[in-house]
Amino acid sequence: MIHSMTAFARREAETPAGTLTWELRSVNHRYLDIGLRLPEELRGLEPRVREAIQARVKRGKVDVGLWFARAAGTDAALDAEQLRRVTAVAEEAQRLVGGRLETLRAIDVLRWPGVLKGASLDVEGLGKEALALLNRALDELVDNRAREGARLQEFLLARLAGMEKIVNDTQALLPDIQRLYRERLETRLKEMKEQLDPARLEQEIVLFANRTDVAEELDRLTAHFAEIRRVLNGAEQAGRRLDFLMQELNREANTLASKSADLRQTNASVELKVLIDQMREQIQNIE
């Protein structure tokens, strides 16, 4: 079963300290790239959050955000006395250097230890609840990636079936293509009023068959189709392997076109390349 790299998950939970909300978004990327935003109170969770994500997701750009809204009655309150002390020290520093320091901003003052006081927070307990909620959000993300992967798999298998039909039809055309060439060659020789030399005619047919022989290309295409089916139905990561196989399919389709001696074979090669491009575009989203 393949997984898409594109998905979204959101989980929210109420705790005694307040509301925790996780949002996870993932899109296609060559490797695993985690962007993480955590509230100041839970900044220490970052290593454990990254470890939890890496255990569940192998490829993709994953943006992860955690929001924490304190419960009513636990909001921080301003300590006016501490604020006066901090601003007094700042003003004294400005006086000593002749006003050459940067102007003190309100946000800087509020960050000073002791200026804002709130109800005590059980950071360890809140962290455990946040990690448990993260696991549920990851379950949702992985499930969504699997559902989208199932849709991608259905799309890819439909295109694969189309390519298999093209190859089978092309294989069936080869005797007719050779027969038509023989007839054209015989007609041309007659028009040139040359006596038909059976040996020469057979030699020309053999040369033509060698120049236009695509049996190996068709066999390799068939082998690649079998490998694509195996990868799509397997348990391993499929994205990189499928991308490589698309390159191989495209190479064989190009050779099929270069050896073409019949418009039907040329059209078959074009149709193959259209389906390959459609598959390659969707494969970029597979983990």
Task: Walk me through this protein's architecture.
- The protein is an alpha+beta fold and 287 residues long.
- It folds into 3 domains: 7-74 and 123-145, 2-Layer Sandwich (Ribosomal Protein S5, domain 2), CATH 3.30.230.10; 77-117; 148-283, no CATH class.
- The chain has helices at residues 46-56, 80-96, 106-110, 123-191, 198-212, 215-232, 239-258, 263-283, and strands at residues 7-15, 18-27, 32-37, 60-70, 77-78, 116-117.
- A 4-stranded mixed beta sheet has the order 1-2-4-3, with helices on one face. It has a two-stranded antiparallel sheet with strand order 5-6.
The number of helical segments is 8
Tell the overall outline: elongated
Which blocks of ≥5 consecutive residues have pLDDT under 50? none
* Multimer state: single chain
Spatial extent as radius of gyration: 34 Å
The strand line-up of the biggest sheet is: 1-2-4-3
By secondary-structure content and strand pairing, the structural class works out as: alpha+beta
Report the major sheet: 4 strands, mixed
Average residue pLDDT? 84
Element-level helix/strand string: EEEHEEHHEHHHHH
The total tally of domains equals 3
Features:
four-stranded mixed β-sheet; 8 helices; 287 residues; two-stranded antiparallel ribbon; 3 domains; 61% helix; Ribosomal Protein S5, domain 2; alpha+beta
Topology:
Layout: E1 7-15, E2 18-27, E3 32-37, H1 46-56, E4 60-70, E5 77-78, H2 80-96, H3 106-110, E6 116-117, H4 123-191, H5 198-212, H6 215-232, H7 239-258, H8 263-283
Parallel strand pairs: 3-4
Antiparallel strand pairs: 1-2, 2-4, 5-6
